[in-house]
Structure formats: structure tokens, C-alpha cells
């Protein structure tokens, strides 16, 4: 059955038009393929990245170093410029994480408030 006035609303298909299927999962193959053979094995790096990202790995190492440094005498800690720098970097990264979590929490709370208001209007 043809809709009324079908001839005034033709559908034209140009080349490369129509439905599109796209895989949106990020592929890191190019990133790991860029690892030079003398620097490491790209397949091993990709598998290690699946276990823990570089940020996760660095976070664990940083926490371990700071814990070990806290066991040193106070005068050794005070004289260590790299330790102070590592503490500052760690504090800045933790502040960034906290700010991002707070921003996301505020966004979620605002969305929840909108839903509550919509629900109360719909119930009336």
C-alpha cells in the first residue's frame, strides 16, 4: 500500500548513504604497535595494560614509595627533594581525582532532583 502523495516525498539514496554500523570500542593496537622492539614486546604490553593501566601501576608504585619513605628518619625525609616533589605530585593527582568525583556527584544529584520533580508532577 502506498501512502497518499507518495510521489511528492521520494527517497533518494546517494552513494555511501544508508545505515551505518560502527564499532566504538577503542582500539589501542596502533598505540602498542608503536612500541619499538628494543623497548619491549607490544603483545605483552597490551596484555599487561589489560591487567592494570599505566596510571594504576604508577599509583601503586607511588603509594609504596611514600610508605617506604615514611619509615625513614625525619631528617632524611626533610633533606629529600625528590620525596617532596613526589608528595606534591601525589597530592595534586589526588586533588584532581577528588574534584572530578565531586563534579560527577553534583551532576548525578542534579539529575536525580530533575527526575524527582518530574515524578512528582507526573503523579499529580
Topology (SSEs and partners):
Layout: H1 29-33, H2 42-51, H3 54-70, H4 74-78, H5 81-123
Helix pairs in contact: 3-5
Main features:
mainly alpha; 0% strand
Q: Outline of this structure?
A:
The protein has 5 helices and no strands. The radius of gyration is 28 Å and the shape is flat.
Number of strands: 0
In sequence order, what are the helices and strands, one letter per element? Answer: HHHHH
Helix tally equals 5
Strand portion: under 5%
What level of helicity do the residues show? 55-70%
Largest sheet: none
The secondary-structure class comes to mainly alpha
Domain count: 2
- The whole-angstrom Rg is 28 Å
* Global geometry: flat
User: From the structure provided, what is the oligomeric state, counting identical versus distinct chains?
Assistant: single chain
Spans of 5+ residues with little confidence (pLDDT < 50)?
A: none
Amino-to-carboxy terminus distance? 43 Å
Mean pLDDT: 83
Give an account of the 3D structure:
With 124 residues, the chain is an all-alpha fold. The protein has two domains: 28-71, no CATH class; 77-124. 65% of the residues lie in helices and 0% in strands. It contains five helices and no strands. The protein has helices at residues 29-33, 42-51, 54-70, 74-78, 81-123. Helix 3 crosses helix 5 (81-123). The protein is flat and about 90 Å long. The two termini are 43 Å apart. The model has no long low-confidence stretch (mean pLDDT 83).
Amino acid at each position: 500500500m502506498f501512502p497518499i502523495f507518495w510521489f511528492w516525498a521520494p527517497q533518494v539514496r546517494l552513494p555511501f548513504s544508508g545505515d551505518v554500523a560502527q564499532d566504538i570500542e577503542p582500539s589501542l593496537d596502533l598505540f602498542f604497535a608503536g612500541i619499538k622492539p628494543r623497548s619491549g614486546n607490544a603483545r605483552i604490553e597490551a596484555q599487561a595494560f589489560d591487567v592494570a593501566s599505566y596510571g594504576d601501576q604508577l599509583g601503586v608504585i607511588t603509594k609504596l614509595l611514600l610508605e617506604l619513605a615514611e619509615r625513614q628518619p625525619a631528617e632524611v625525609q626533610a633533606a629529600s627533594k625528590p620525596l617532596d616533589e613526589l608528595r606534591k605530585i601525589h597530592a595534586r593527582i589526588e586533588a584532581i581525582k577528588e574534584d572530578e568525583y565531586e563534579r560527577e556527584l553534583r551532576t548525578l544529584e542534579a539529575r536525580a532532583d530533575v527526575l524527582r520533580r518530574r515524578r512528582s508532577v507526573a503523579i499529580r
